[in-house]
Batch of 4 targets.
Target 1
Amino acid sequence: MKAVLLEAFGGPENLHYSDHPDPKPGRGEALVRVRACALNHLDLFIRDGIPAYKIGLPHILGCDIAGEVLAYGTEAQGPKPGSRVVVCPGRSCGDCVYCWRGEDSRCKDYGIIGAQAGPGGYAELIVVPARNLFPTPAGMTDEAAASFPLTFLTAWHMLITLGGLRAGQDVLVLGAGSGVGVAGLQIAAAAGARVVAASTSAEKLDAAKKLGARELIHSPPEDLLRRAIKLTGGKGFDLVFEHVGPAVFDKALKALAPGGALITCGSTTGPVVQLDMRYVFSRELRILGAKMGSLAEFSEVVRLVSNGTLKPVVDATFPLEEARRAHEYLGSRKQFGKVVLKI
Ligand SMILES: [Zn+2]
């Protein structure tokens, strides 16, 4: 098969479009012909050599995959061969206390396909656990289908499962133009929250409004808190959806209402934040970390994408052989929604 191999850690020049042996499905696994694979910032972090991911080289990146199931290994079943499928990106052992409870991402063997859990979707073929296959929503392109798994699963886990979001609550979505931001604001709006979207890009905020944001904050981080407090009539937010890190963390925490929760799934501006403990105890704030989500949560996300409640947003597509260019584009942070490789 053709695949894009990461041959050394560093810049996009380390991605090589090459021939690679076809994978074979083992016990419980399915062989999938990849038609589209969406990029995530995680791909860029792994490519750069982030120490948290111990990955052998050469490696095939790509966590968000849509295509057709071709065949199954032993003791595997799922949609019949030829069916269009979308792949849940998380892989867990299936047989530990966390997996039994449906808390897949807490499993010690949990990994993301294309990251620490084996080769990903920058390739014509991939082998994945058969139980990770879900039917592609009817009438949806492969590019759109590849654009929702990782971000919508993460955002669902953050807002619904961990945040316990209820109708009428005030939710602040930071970095609203990113893949996970787009997912977060749609899920919060669909759950009946009053969503405020924040971004430093006016263009991205226009698009956020069309996806359900009631109010917009277009301001540099210094001004974020003042605007946020004003928009909630001085009360503060019930939930803050966060993935930016040090550039906004302190202001995001102070923008919470008493008893509110800041839920974070990433820290794109650096790993270390300052925490003013006085705010945390005096206002009974909660800080919740989120990592991906479970197969059960993914099935809910697929259902809501299938019935049109949640809409994947594709910003740009590139052919597989232009993965380098796609990385450069994602790195420029100009996109609204997902950058997708067509295979
Ligand atoms: Zn497990």
Target 2
Amino acid sequence: MSFSSDVKAEMLSYISKDASLHCRRARLGAVINVCGYVNSAGKDKFIVIHNENLSILNLAVSLISDIFGYDAVIIKHDAVINDGKIVTEITDSLGLRDSGDFGLDPPIMPSLVKRSCCKRAYIAMAFILSGSVTDPGKQYHIELVMNDYDHAIALTELIDYFGIEMKIVERKNRYVMYCKESEQIVDLLNVISAHKALLDFENLRVVKEVRNNINRVVNCETANINRVVNTAVRQLNDIRYIAERKGINFLPYNLRQAAKLRLEYPDASLKEIGELITPPIGKSGVNHRFNKIHEIAEKLKGDH
Ligand SMILES: [Zn+2]
């Protein structure tokens, strides 16, 4: 199973347990708005809900049965309501527009999603029906695909209520609402109560963060190594200059000791050189000796 289908399976497993009527109404509204066809005008009124997934059709049928006491018939991939009275009752009660009707009525009736829990229920249902989220190990991407532009706008506004900004792009006559910001994706997964997905997402973000931190540490160490190398190169130049001009024995004993070790161990750090000196001295002591060597070299250059 893909990451996306795992998320949806998780959501479907808890969605049927929810009991409050207002949220179930919001859910049914989402089902019909996302994958339904509504015709409430004329003599032959009907609502058809189309979905390839039988458990979604069953969920829709049970919602209709619970709320309106009507048993819709499932024919292949469609749940069909063709009782004119029930169709009118459903469309009036949930504020549904006829398909292809671009009138003044809002695509999502405000009273249907007035409560915050109902907003979540509506968005969650829309996601189950038309959404997908990419495995965060590959890419940060979440999207919902809508047939109706007005509905895509209305749903974007509904999601915006939770501070999540979705962009809309047209793809093959459909409208793709998407988001690529990892934090916003986590927020959206939270809104639709996809908790396991949210955890997976957060874990992966932590792993990525740790990996970035390790990279930063490695970069820091590289920078330190560069500093050590640069310092050693300068010290070697000083020592060689003095040795060429005056001979290494020109240096007093304590400085000569450090100089010889530097010539022998060009890559060694000050600390390491300090440990090789008898008796051992600290890093600052070694640094002090190389500073003295530097002064002597500079003085010789001045004399030249
Ligand atoms: Zn509710």
Target 3
Amino acid sequence: MAGSEKFRSVSLHSITPGEPLPFRVAIFYKGKHLVFRKPGQQMEVAIYNKFVYRQIHRIFIPEEDFAKYLDYQKVKEEAERSLLQNPKYSPEQQALERLTSSVKALSDALFASEDLASLEENVRKSLEISKATVKAVLAKPYFGIYTMLSQKADTVANHSMRVSVLATLLGYQLGFVNPLALEQLAAAGILHDIGKTKLTLSDPFDESIPASEKEAMDAEIMKQHPVVSCDMLSKMPFVPQEVTRIIREHHESRDGTGYPNRLRGSSMYGLSKVFTIANTFDSLVSSPQDGDALELHARALLKMDKELRNQFDQALLTKALAFLTLKRP
Ligand SMILES: [Fe+2]
Ligand SMILES: [Fe+2]
């Protein structure tokens, strides 16, 4: 009987999101255990992230399924141990691999080649400079923050790495060739969304509020993240003020419709204007939709050109689009 069934509390982080689970999973809600995943179903990454944002760190396994949970942990631990024993998979190495794969994916989808050596000189050089800049920035202490981000919100960490690469790539192409400026863009890329890990979104199990209303509420809560990111960075004295400024302005818009301060383009920092182009582009590319990488990139470029044009500095956007569509028909 469901009512008399016993449950054991385990850490949310002991299960891997996005993979089928061999046991039932429950949450404790309004005084009772509520089974919300059956064997063979998965904890979707989006739901997992939502739990993390809401600081829900405990889930519950029915006593009857607990042996299966323990077996699952053994298999997982074994796999993790063999990964950790391999020095190739140290956190530093993982971050560098993520950097390399971001550069490759970008180069493949935008410039029709994964192989940097075969690219046009201008593109190859910019990608190499971008990669070297992000690599330099990833050195301590930024590396520790990135590791924390990967552990708390992996999707945000992936996006942040891609934005870091793309922002420096565009920065260099748009004339911000000073290495210090490029490093500021790279650091802002890594750090800009860390505030998202501190936000508390609506309760996914609260049925008293319609889903559409919850979505609207969550969108409003999400708008706090640039300010929350900056609050977190204010406690890290090694982060330059310029980087914090880019982060505070990364959702501002040239036409004054952005947040949190509805700044106009004229009051925005130059590097923020480059950064918003990179951040919007990656957010468009990585939003859930059908199509392969080439199609997603083409669609994002078109949308920025036609629908979102007023959000960006016109001269910078024109140059950025010309560069990003270099190899397109
Ligand atoms: Fe953001
Ligand atoms: Fe972002």
Target 4
Amino acid sequence: MKYSIVIPARDEEEAIVPTVTGLVDALGAAAVDYEVIVVDDASRDGTAAAVDRIAAANPRVRSHRSHNPPGFGFAVRAGLDIFTGDAVAIVMADGSDSPEDVVAYYRALEEGHECVFGSRFVRGARVSDYPRTKLVLNRIVNTGIRLLFRHGYNDTTNAFKAYRREVIDTAQPLLSNQFNLTVELPLKAVARGHEFTVVPISWTNRAAGSSKLKLQEMGSRYLFIVLYVLLERHLSKGDYRRRQP
Ligand SMILES: Nc1nc2c(ncn2[C@@H]2O[C@H](COP(=O)(O)OP(=O)(O)OP(=O)(O)O)[C@@H](O)[C@H]2O)c(=O)[nH]1
Ligand SMILES: [Mg+2]
């Protein structure tokens, strides 16, 4: 099973090298057949050049200038258009996600799971240095989503997740151009009939670079996509559910 890692990156010159190196080391040590695709769009720094230097020595790594307009959702979707693996993990460029967890996701996919959702809020998870306001908002939003979807999972808003290729196909067409893609993917996967497993993960606040998430601009977009998937689930008579294998 080939495993693709898609990393959206905007102005992550400082963080991207340790992030990619950490992934390559962990995946190599675990003997995983992998590719790493870093999707850059409007970076004004040397993000792509830094990735290209790693790529020169490791053909499994490449940078991709997004073929979509700028934006987190657009960038991830560009990566999802071009990955070649049987499954894909979406990993942040800022070093917040742990390479060991990326390998753990692969093992869960190997066991046959269709989606692997990490949670920072279950026994065994570790969270360090989560900004206070963000944490409070996070818990409110994730609890709301859990009440609406009754899927029994409490970290829907975290983008770091893995999916088999069929799930990405089922979720098309993807609509979110911004950070709201982080909830569109898992909610559609669940609403359209895919199975998932939850694993505890560790998360560390970025050590370098700056945050790109502007919560004020995202609130209504998150609400839009949550309501969209909810309406689809309740009103569309199953028209968009996965085709049974
Ligand atoms: N290509 C691309 N990548 C983006 C864009 N916006 C964010 N990213 C990347 O998406 C990932 C998540 O963005 P972050 O800024 O870390 O958002 P966050 O995790 O909510 O904020 P932090 O508190 O800074 O960690 C990072 O790898 C960013 O480089 C964008 O418009 N285009
Ligand atoms: Mg981050």
